[in-house]
Amino acid sequence: MSTLPTHDFKDSRSPDFPAAALPLLQDTQLRSNVRHATGVIQAKRAHVVGEMPDWQALRDAGQRIRAHTLEYLDFYLEQFEQRCSAAGGHVHWALDAAEANHIVIRLAQNSTGRVIKIKSMTTEETGLNRALEAAGISPVETDLAELIVQLGHDKPSHIVVPALHKNRHQVRELFSRTMNLPDLGERPEDLAEAARLHLRRQFLSTPVAISGANFLIAETGGVCIVESEGNGRMCLTLPRKLISIAGIDKIIPRFQDLEVMLQVLPRSATGERMNPYNSLWTGVHPGDGPEEFHIVLLDNRRTEVLRDPEARETLHCIRCGACQNACPVYRQTGGHAYGSVYAGPIGAILTPQLAMMERGQSLPYASSLCGACYEVCPVKINIPEILIHLRGRVVSGRPKALRALHPEAVVMRTMQWIFSNSTRFSLAQRSGRIAQRPWIRRSGWIEKLPSVLGGWTRTRDLRPLPAQSFREWFHARHRESPLTSNRPEAHHE
Amino acid sequence: MRISLFITCYNDTLFPEIGIATVRVLERLGHTIDFPYAQTCCGQMHYNTGYQPEAVPLVRRFVEVFRDSEVVCVPSSSCVTMMREHYEKIAVASGDKVLQSEVAALLPRVYEFTELVVHRLGVEDVGAVYPHRVTYHSSCHSLRNLHLGDVPIRLLRNVRGLKLIPMEAGDLCCGFGGTFSIKNPDVSGAMLEEKLQYIQKTQAEVCTACDNSCLMHIGGALHRQRANMRTEHIATILASDSEFRVPSNGAR
Question: How far apart are the first and last CA of chain B?
Answer without folding.
Answer: 34
